């Protein structure tokens, strides 16, 4: 039984959703986060004082720290989400993606393996290391056919996806070489509350609120499969507790949209809520910009294995989930205004 979980990167977008979910179910959570630019403890304010929650600021590559935490807390499972995760930033500066996503994962694996090998036999049997990854490791798909499955060959297109592909391979190698009981998951594009505003949906929402230009790469034809972060968090808990050792699970929302469709829908939602105050509709703010290098055409995930083996289903459809997300940003200026005025003001990244 998984009673205590070490979550790495638990102050990030997906990580904080996982932490909130696990703490809410009574699981003891130890959140290890370096608090780089995208880590935000404000995302965890609702559970910060919970008796079954502990936050530790630190680096997954710090073997002494990780080993001490694992032993102090008698950890039963690790959910590894700590990563550099923005494609555009990986184009501007790829080396930190290798340092964090590859070398950091390898050092974490070494620390966890040493701890796991020292457990009693019954606890070694129930221990799990869950590595959370992305569908971007698979490259891209034609616009008109195909979906990613767990057996799709890896073909990463960006420094970010290459670093995540490498970390996936190291996790599998640790299982084969050292016997570490691992499970893996690869997800489609997430959206929802507490999303750092460099990503498409929150950037568009906040720029639309402020009536700033709404940048869209190319002609906005690239397609993504959208998954609500709360649905993803539920899936991740099931992968950790019910997933078969050595297996990977694809988690997707079955909700494909072009980037232009997403941006246009957000414009209409913000117009409906704030009005136009005599200005043109916010769709007029859409600005097509030069495409980023290596921009994948389409992502689409087949989540059948997770649905069949784990009993998971996405509960949010994209239309209502996106509307709820827009409403959340409108109601929670306290969370995003400090980010926009400090760490990230909406500038373009990843020009190549």
Description:
The protein is α/β, with parallel strands linked by helices and about 350 residues long. Helix content is about 40%, strand content about 15%. It is built from twelve helices and twelve strands. The chain has a seven-stranded parallel β-sheet, sandwiched between helices. It has a three-stranded mixed β-sheet with strand order 7-9-11. Helix 2 crosses helix 4. The radius of gyration is 20 Å and the shape is globular. It starts with a strand and ends in a 12-residue tail after the last helix.
How much of the sequence lies in strands comes to 15-25%
Helix/strand order, N-terminal first? EHEEHEHHHEHEEHEEHEEHEHHH
Structural class: alpha/beta
**Which term fits the overall shape?**
globular
Give, in spatial order, the strands making up the sheet with the most strands: 3-2-1-4-5-6-10
State the distance separating the first and last CA atoms: 47 Å
Poorly predicted segments? 348-352
Helix content: 40-55%
